Here is the input.
Amino acid sequence: MEPAQLHNQNHSPGVGLLESKSDIQARVLRFTIGSRCFGVLASAVMEVSPPLEVTPLPFASDFLSGIALLRGEIVAVMNLAASVGVAIAQDPAKSKYIILNALIADDSMPIAFAVERVGDVCNISAMEAVQPCADSSPFIVGIVNSHSPPTEILDHRMLPRVITRSL
Here is the structure.
């Protein structure tokens, strides 16, 4: 499934995640933060990394942890946990980082965020997803209850907005 086919009408019209109630499958990487399970399109994931050394940026919002260097490339590190209202329970030194290729101000730049556990890659049908409640994070575009635990699907294209608003 192409990213343009995933959509949440409550938060971001035109995003396209879960718009089609067809049987098209999307490959989703599942991960946990706190007690909640999330998923992001596997095609958006560049890699999963061990802990990064994050340099905080002065005056940045709480949603932007800072920047890191990954093999000579600058990576924006967002605080996804704060963005979705979850506290990370474990020591950040034990976290993994999911690195996404994202478009920030018409330029491709990796975005990283810490997770406590990286799970499996699974196929999810748009028909399996339900709309999140209206007061959920704008990054959550659907919830899949057919997997245990239920998986909150993130729209990876919304994440760069946190970075640009934080600078």
User: Anything to note?
Assistant: Residues 7 and 13 are 7 Å apart (CA to CA). The longest strand covers residues 25-33. The chain has one domain: 3-166. Confidence is low (pLDDT under 50) at residues 1-17.
